[in-house]
Specification:
mainly alpha
């Protein structure tokens, strides 16, 4: 009987040790989670409660002064977040050792970076050293999308800033406008964006304009026969030179009907062969994407739903969080170069 009692007590002891071990592991896991938070909604609610309001107000002010800033915000999120990590590497200036991403050919036409600095300065006055440039880039994109009539997109925050440019990776991640739709689909798929998401993201071509440099190959030496003949005279008028000056103000509006509104008119245009870029034409005619294009042309709510989902996936692409990266003092410089 005493032997049985000892075995029973021994069993209880082993069980207690096991429970304590599990509790310790759980506590350690929770401590790690607390120490290394990932992205979350309203990340700055305690450290800078006004952060998102400040970004919203600054974007509204800048949009009133310069309407084309909204297109810049939208392009920024794609050009930054699609290249390995959503970490504001796009914003870094070139150094003696390293060419900045914004100087690469794939970034042709990107501008208005100085306005990101204006937003950063406003946040630094309120909460010094708290809000990252990568979160500013993502939040300003959200506000820019809404400013041009797009949907309000709930986005998580808590990103930290990268320490270096990724110029050498741009061509691996960013599709070129002349690449086949298969290549474009594959590059988006690599960051978790499916075919409806890709079709929705390219709906961004509904707003803004395209520089003649990017489309003259469809006009010279001969006009691309797949272009709508009614649209060609306008394109030739806007792009009269077969070798346009990249610095000249020679552009064609992406959508002549509603050029300042993010809407599903883009899809109707490309189905009517009025897409400016080769990728626009392929999107409308490839069997994998055409049914989605036709659906979005008829249903703006569907376009906005898929667009929202794609932007959320894009904005959460491999971010730096917790103790990784840094909070830059100035968005165009890593702190070590400040």
């Amino acid at each position: 009987r005493e032997e049985r009692q000892r075995k029973k007590m021994g069993g209880k002891g082993v069980m207690m040790v096991a429970i304590l071990c599990l509790w310790a592991l759980s506590a350690t896991s929770e401590a790690v989670t607390e120490a290394e938070p990932g992205l979350m909604m309203n990340f700055y609610k305690d450290t800078c409660p006004q952060a998102e309001d400040i970004v919203r107000e600054q974007v509204k002010l800048l949009y009133k002064r310069h309407k084309n800033t909204a297109f810049s915000w939208l392009r920024n999120i794609f050009h930054d977040c699609a290249v390995e990590s959503c970490d504001a590497s796009l914003l870094l200036d070139s150094t003696r050792r390293e060419l900045g991403e914004k100087e690469h050919d794939r970034s042709f036409g990107l501008r208005n970076f100085r306005y990101i600095e204006e937003i950063k300065e406003a946040l630094e006055r309120e909460c010094p050293g708290v809000v990252s440039c990568s979160d500013i880039l993502v939040l300003s994109a959200r506000e820019g999308i809404e400013a041009v009539g797009g949907p309000y997109i709930p986005l998580k925050t808590g990103r930290r800033d990268g320490l270096k440019s990724r110029t050498d990776m741009l061509e691996s991640y960013l599709p070129d406008h002349n690449e086949s739709i298969s290549v474009v689909l594959e590059k988006f798929k690599s960051i978790g964006i499916d075919t409806p998401g890709l079709v929705a993201l390219l709906g961004s071509h509904s707003v803004g304009r395209t520089h003649c440099v990017k489309l003259v190959h469809r006009l010279y030496p001969e006009v691309d026969p797949s272009l709508n003949p009614d649209h060609v005279p306008h394109m030739l008028h806007k792009c009269p030179d077969s070798i346009p000056d990249p610095k000249a103000v020679q552009y064609v509006r992406n959508d002549r009907g509603t050029p300042m509104v993010l809407d599903n008119n883009y899809y109707r245009n490309i189905l009517d062969n009025k897409g400016l870029l080769l990728v626009d034409h392929q999107l409308a005619h490839d069997k994998r994407t055409r049914p989605i294009v036709k659906k979005m042309a008829k249903d703006q709510a569907y376009f906005f739903k898929e667009f929202t989902r794609a932007i959320q996936i894009l904005s959460e692409n491999n971010p730096l969080t917790g103790s990784k990266g840094e909070i830059r003092k100035q968005c165009n410089l890593a702190n070590k170069n400040h």
